[in-house]
Amino acid sequence: MPLRKKALPLLLFAVVLAGLLALSGCSYSTMTERLTQDTSPAPNKAWTPPKEDEKKPAVKAPGIPENLFASKAHWTLADVIDLALRNNPATRAAWLQALSAAANVGEKKGAYYPTLDLNVDASRVGSSAIGVQFYFSQSSWSPSAQLSYLLFDFGGRKAKVDEAREALIAANWSHNTAIQTVILNVETAYYQYMNARALAEAQQTALKQAETNLEAAKVRHQAGLGTIADVLQAKTALSQSQLKLETYEGQMHTIRGGLATAIGLPANTPFNIQPVSKAIPVVKVTDKVSTLIDKATMNRPDLESLKARAREAQAHVRSVKASRYPSLELSGQAGRLYYLSPTTNRADTYNAQLSVKIPLFDGMIRRYQIIGAEADAKQAQAQFESLEDQVVYQVWASFYTLKTAEKRLSTSRDLLASAKESYDVALGRYKAGVGSILDLLSAQSALEDARAQAVQARTDWLQAVAQLAYDTGTLKVHSPQTDVMIGGVEKKGKP
């Protein structure tokens, strides 16, 4: 019997424990089911978004002005750049960063002003004794104002304001860099698209000439002056020209999608591009490369941004060093205490104090902060010097790239003219029965190549102009139909 009495509590404990374990298992199962509602149900199944997420509106497409959205509107380079600056998130992010830096300057300047806080406390106190025979309660509330003003801190506030101001200057220069980068990327994509379209148009002319060659070969064959081999060779040349045309057209559509993406629009956005005038005046660079390098060191926004970052790091060093010195602060408080029960009374309180805070020991925290700040300042200066060297090289390389592009553009025009004349002579000789089909096809091939080289040389020159303007920090929105930017100098000329 005693054994049963001892076993009964153990049995009850086992039952309770089993119940708790069962509840725990159910709880774990319920929690797992709840969690799988927010994830995929199993490792081998993809996650399906909830219906309410599917109903969310899609991201609004970038806006296009009505005058540009018209079906017959032809976008100029200036229009394309304007759209890119509106829609590209890089410029928007850079601008917001500058806006945040401007707010930070205002925040740091606030340290020059006193702070004033209003506090209101309410309380009720009650007590009882001897079985609630004696009971006491009292309600009160006390409004108070507290003033605090930092009088002197050995230049700590000024250093923090200077640091924030330099950060703002750096952010503004970074915004300018983002704008110029977007302009350069859009101009590059624009010229590449115009290059692809010009190649396709040139190949269409070559295709018509191949058809003319084939017709001439057929005429000679029918007149008994040529062989079937001439006709077959002309057909082969025609097929090759058709294949090149299809390749150029495919590249043109691909590059067109890249241009839309650079603008910040979907690749399938319908738009028409106004072609660049074929008679763009070639303006030679009159500035010396040393002059362009001087312009770059004064105008490059990314270089100015790093210069401001270096000054920001130096200001941070001063701010950290100032924390080692004493600070003088004035503070005061005035308030009134109201007793609401059992009778209404009031009491006024006030105090003022002038405190000096003298840092003595902080576990070497400030010392390490100074060492870190000085290292950051030296790193920022080194980054500025490194970019300065890169800028010099970039301007040097862009200058001679543009010089080479100028020569290639002039040479390609002469080559095209001579190739066209050679083809006309070869075609006339073949029709007259004194030239061979090989001479004609060779002249046609040379003319196709000359056209392609002329188109590419023109594109390379336009891109070299834009790249030099970017590297010297003078790139801006312009239209190549009316002016050409060389090192930031406008050279007007009629197309």
Task: Please characterize this protein's 3D structure.
It is a single chain. This protein has helices spanning 2-36, 51-54, 66-69, 77-87, 89-109, 156-222, 228-263, 289-299, 301-322, 365-431, 437-471; strands at 74-75, 115-129, 134-152, 272-273, 327-339, 345-357, 483-486, 489-492. The chain is an alpha+beta fold and 495 residues long. Helix 10 (365-431) runs antiparallel to helix 11 (437-471). The protein is elongated and about 140 Å long.
Any chance you could write out the topology, listing elements then pairs?
Blueprint: H1 2-36, H2 51-54, H3 66-69, E1 74-75, H4 77-87, H5 89-109, E2 115-129, E3 134-152, H6 156-222, H7 228-263, E4 272-273, H8 289-299, H9 301-322, E5 327-339, E6 345-357, H10 365-431, H11 437-471, E7 483-486, E8 489-492
Parallel strand pairs: 1-4
Antiparallel strand pairs: 2-3, 3-5, 5-6, 7-8
Helix pairs in contact: 4-6, 5-6, 6-7, 6-9, 6-11, 8-10, 9-10, 10-11
Q: What does the largest sheet look like? A: 4 strands, antiparallel
The whole-angstrom Rg is: 40 Å
* H and E string: HHHEHHEEHHEHHEEHHEE
Got a strand count?
A: 8
Features:
elongated, four-stranded antiparallel beta sheet, 495 residues, 11 helices, alpha+beta
Question: TL;DR?
Answer:
Helix content is 63%, strand content 15%. It has 495 residues and is of the alpha+beta class.
